[in-house]
């Protein structure tokens, strides 16, 4: 079986749902269920014994060792993390704990387990670490996209903590020979994304007639990767990636933030007209401190070495995403609970 961490979060739950749909192999899902973890994302699997959910913290070495010993995974997909840049600015401590200490403890557990395996299983074992393009820092408009060879220049507590975890993963391969794989993907979007990130925040605010808060001048650029394309890339790296290597995963969709917000408003205007004009909700607010201007990802390596490419364009992916949020408004209401409202106050009140 395979073991995933953070499988009740946005990307993790999409990965688990696809895995169960495409393979007979069981998947053990370790998740602490922070504000970002949501078992509702996996409600389709409630009676499915192929998915084994364990509520646990990756920082807890004893529990991790027991889970590894009991389930004997052939591979680990490590996605558990604190993942939101704005939260890392308001409170970096949890990011250091989960992203750095948690990754370290998980690596230690995996290393001891891996060493105890018979040779055939030891050779086949993989530890796949899911990281981000943000570790490479920021690009100006005319610089070429990040390749796997770019130096790490993280600018936020979030990206610094991810870069630190990447370094640990690298060291565990170099020093101990643990068969690691690391992926650096761009901004994901799609179903089940918590509405603190740009795209789901804009969709849910627009549907409630609330302001659409654009940071600074809205001219920052991100590359957007449809979450199911990301999941197919991870399966591809797990199956064919070379241990010790890192792979960039991009969506070939560089867009200005303002362009994204306009696109969402226009789709909603067409698909869900109301008695106000969605674009009139756009509100410019104070910029994010240390805001990275542009991310862009060069995915030639995964394309040429492993034959992966994204299936969705931004136009098809954003259409499906807006439809999902329109059809799952109860999910949205459920996650916009007390904790969510507290976060909205922390991040947005006083910013306009
Ligand atoms: P998410 O915040 O939606 O989910 C993270 C999950 O990890 C949650 O279910 C949470 O409960 C769990 N978790 C947090 N701390 C834990 C701990 N100590 N022990 C066990 N579980 C814990 O994140 P996501 O957007 O799904 O991102 C998944 C991974 O992909 C992260 O490593 C993130 O850095 C990376 N990534 C995400 C994006 C993106 O656009 N979302 C882009 C690049 C990289
Ligand atoms: P986000 O989804 O938080 O991802 P990241 O910071 O990891 O790229 O933000 C994407 C972009 O959208 C980023 O440039 C910040 C901007 N943004 C806004 O303009 N307003 C918002 O309310 C949010 C959450 C993000």
Low-confidence stretches: none
SSE sequence, one letter per element = EHEEHEHHHEHEEHEEHEEHEHHHH
Number of helices: 13
**Biggest β-sheet: strands ordered side by side in the sheet:** 3-2-1-4-5-6-10
- Report the sheet with the most strands, covering strand number, pairing sense and barrel closure: 7 strands, parallel
* Average pLDDT level: 97
Rounded to the nearest angstrom, the distance between the terminal CA atoms is: 49 Å
Q: For the record, what is the CATH homologous superfamily label of the domain at 2-189 and 226-251 and 293-312?
A: NAD(P)-binding Rossmann-like Domain
| C-alpha geometry | globular
CATH domain fold name of the domain at 2-189 and 226-251 and 293-312? Rossmann fold
Rg computed from alpha carbons, rounded to a whole number of angstroms: 20 Å
- Structural class, by secondary structure, is alpha/beta
Helix content: 40-55%
Question: What is the CATH level 1 assignment of the domain at 2-189 and 226-251 and 293-312?
Answer: Alpha Beta
What's the total number of strands?
12
Reported CATH architecture of the domain at 2-189 and 226-251 and 293-312: 3-Layer(aba) Sandwich
Report the portion of residues in β strands: 15-25%
* Bound molecule kinds, no repeats: nicotinamide-adenine-dinucleotide, thymidine-5'-diphosphate
Domain NAD(P)-binding: 3-320
GO molecular function: dTDP-glucose 4,6-dehydratase activity
EC number: 4.2.1.46
Keywords: Lyase, NAD
């Amino acid at each position: 079986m395979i073991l995933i961490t953070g499988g009740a979060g946005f990307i993790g739950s999409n990965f688990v749902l696809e895995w169960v749909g495409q393979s007979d192999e069981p998947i053990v899902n370790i998740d602490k269920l922070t504000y970002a973890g949501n078992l509702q994302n996996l409600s389709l699997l409630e009676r499915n014994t192929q998915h084994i959910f364990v509520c646990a913290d990756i920082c807890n070495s004893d529990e991790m060792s027991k889970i590894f010993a009991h389930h004997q995974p052939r591979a680990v997909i490590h996605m558990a993390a604190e993942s939101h840049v704005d939260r890392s600015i308001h409170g970096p401590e949890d990011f250091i704990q989960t992203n750095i200490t948690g990754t370290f403890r998980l690596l230690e557990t995996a290393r001891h387990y891996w060493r105890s395996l018979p040779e055939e299983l030891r050779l086949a074992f993989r530890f796949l670490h899911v990281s981000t393009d943000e570790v490479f820092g920021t690009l100006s408009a005319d610089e070429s996209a990040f390749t796997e060879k770019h130096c790490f220049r993280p600018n936020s507590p979030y990206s610094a903590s991810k870069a630190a975890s990447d370094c640990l993963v690298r060291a565990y391969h170099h020093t101990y020979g643990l068969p690691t794989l690391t992926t650096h993907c761009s901004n994901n979007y799609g179903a089940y994304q918590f509405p603190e990130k740009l795209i789901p925040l804009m969709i849910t605010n627009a549907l409630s007639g609330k302001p659409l808060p654009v940071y600074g001048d809205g001219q920052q650029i991100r590359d957007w990767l449809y979450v199911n394309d990301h999941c197919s890339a991870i399966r591809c790296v797990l199956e064919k990636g070379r241990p010790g290597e890192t792979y960039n995963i991009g969506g070939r969709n560089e867009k200005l933030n303002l362009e994204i917000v306009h696109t969402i408003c226009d789709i909603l205007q067409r698909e869900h007209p109301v008695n106000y004009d969605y674009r009139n909700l756009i509100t410019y607010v104070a910029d994010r401190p240390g805001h990275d201007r542009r991310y862009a990802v060069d995915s030639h390596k995964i394309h040429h070495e492993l034959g992966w490419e994204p299936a969705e364009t931004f136009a098809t992916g954003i259409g499906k995403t807006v439809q999902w949020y329109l059809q799952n408004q109860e999910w949205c209401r459920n996650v916009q609970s007390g904790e969510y409202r507290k976060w909205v106050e922390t991040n947005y009140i006083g910013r306009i």
